[in-house]
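[step 3/7] inverse_fold.run input=structure_tokens len=447
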């Protein structure tokens, strides 16, 4: 927490529980419980508590005192607060994963006064108890959802506090700037060295520069988290759907010599260079009076604008008049004719989806594109991963730029305070009540 704030331990009014492992056939199911009533509830189920944070094999009863109904034999872990995930008392039951076992134990928990947890409620309690900040909590959600190695590494770094430490470093530096600014305001008649104000201005410029680099490189982190999007575009019969099928290694799109076969966007997802990618096959670009095909062309142009990279295709003998920005030009059907080495200064990848010529080279080019779009920060700083982070840093940066434009020290000080507040909202230290439901509502049950 920031200096000057008071951390008050958050104790939920209710004891909550959730199945933290997935549904379906499995060997083990983990029921997680947290809240002030956890100790009494665990004693009710197993009798004597096991040693804190040590696994113990125990019988789980409907009522341990009477031992009249045995529910299961489970590994039990007792986590007294504040040294627990949520900061509250809590425990875990590692049960046999039969649906009847889970249902029976859940029923006993409800009888003991617990209720099923809402999505993200465990992590929200951890945040409220100061066990993690808001950026780290979002990293937990991303880690649970991670499908690729790059997503795992990015989420793990965020969960470990890499991004939080960067924002806290900026906040600490800004705090010192604000202290110097307050000195200039409070002691105008004192002969403070001129180096004080110059040092203050230099630090503001340095912070702005660091934030601008972070914002510019932020798209890379967002792409790793959500995936890189390629739009496949070009005129009818250029081979777009055939390319999509080759990338998918299955017949994902209908291939036909009839122009205008593809009317709507078709998406496939996969992994390329360790990054999640989405390829979008779009309608052929041409003038048409067909209302449905015209709508398809409109949607194709929309996907081209939204994509991280455009795969612009054309057939041999049908050189494009225009080249889309950030595109890879692919000249298809080299088995039927020749394609130029470049178009308007842009290199062309010659391929034949019929014979397979050039497809290995094309895959290498696509992998290089993915790596370039998701490369690590040149500054070595952690990448931001969400639009919320980018908006917060942009707001802080704008306040610092506004501070440099102020002639009155008091107005400059106010802009510096606004920048501090923007950084505080990122990590959850100030003014985030309206954000909490949106952030933790994205979590799965049991986190």
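[step 3/7] decode complete -> sequence:
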């Amino acid at each position: 927490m920031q200096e000057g704030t008071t951390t008050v331990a958050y104790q939920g009014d209710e004891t909550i529980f959730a199945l933290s492992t997935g549904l379906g056939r499995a060997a083990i199911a983990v029921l997680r419980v947290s809240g002030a009533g956890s100790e009494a509830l665990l004693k009710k189920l197993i009798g004597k508590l096991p040693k804190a944070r040590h696994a113990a094999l125990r019988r789980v009863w409907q009522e341990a005192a009477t031992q009249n109904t045995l529910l299961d034999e489970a590994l039990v872990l007792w986590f007294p607060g504040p040294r627990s995930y949520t900061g509250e008392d809590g425990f875990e039951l590692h049960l046999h994963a039969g649906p009847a076992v889970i249902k029976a134990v859940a029923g006993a928990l409800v009888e003991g006064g617990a209720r099923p947890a809402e999505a993200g409620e465990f992590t929200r309690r951890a945040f409220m108890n100061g066990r993690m900040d808001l950026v780290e909590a979002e990293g937990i959600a991303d880690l649970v959802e991670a499908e690729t190695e790059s997503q795992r590494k990015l989420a793990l770094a965020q969960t470990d506090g890499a991004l939080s430490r960067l924002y806290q470093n900026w906040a600490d530096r800004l705090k010192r700037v604000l202290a110097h600014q307050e000195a200039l305001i409070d002691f105008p008649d004192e002969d403070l060295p001129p180096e004080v104000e110059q040092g203050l201005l230099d630090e503001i410029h340095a912070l702005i520069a660091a934030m601008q680099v972070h914002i510019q490189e932020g798209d890379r982190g967002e792409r790793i988290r959500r995936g890189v999007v390629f739009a496949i575009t070009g005129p009818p019969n250029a081979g777009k759907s055939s390319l999509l099928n080759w990338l998918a290694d299955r017949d994902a799109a209908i291939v036909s010599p009839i122009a205008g076969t593809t009317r709507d966007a078709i998406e496939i997802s996969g992994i390329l260079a360790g990054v999640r990618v989405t390829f979008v096959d779009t309608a052929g670009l041409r003038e048409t009076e067909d209302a449905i095909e015209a709508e398809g062309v409109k949607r194709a142009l929309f996907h081209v604008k939204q994509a991280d990279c455009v795969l612009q295709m054309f057939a041999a003998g049908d050189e494009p008049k225009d080249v889309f920005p950030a595109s890879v030009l692919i000249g298809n059907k080299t088995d039927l004719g020749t394609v130029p080495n470049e178009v308007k200064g842009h290199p062309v990848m010659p391929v034949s989806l019929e014979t397979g010529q050039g497809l290995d080279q094309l895959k290498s080019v696509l992998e290089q594109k993915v790596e370039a779009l998701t490369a690590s920060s040149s500054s070595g700083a952690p990448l931001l991963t969400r639009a919320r982070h980018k908006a917060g840093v942009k707001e802080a940066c704008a306040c610092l730029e506004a501070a440099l434009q102020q002639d009155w020290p008091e107005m400059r000080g106010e802009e510096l305070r606004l920048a501090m507040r923007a950084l505080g909202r990122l990590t959850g230290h100030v003014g985030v009540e309206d954000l909490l439901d949106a952030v933790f509502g994205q979590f799965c049950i049991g986190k």
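[step 4/7] annotate
DSSP finds 13 helices and 13 strands in the chain.
The chain has three domains: 15-117, 149-224+386-440, 228-373.
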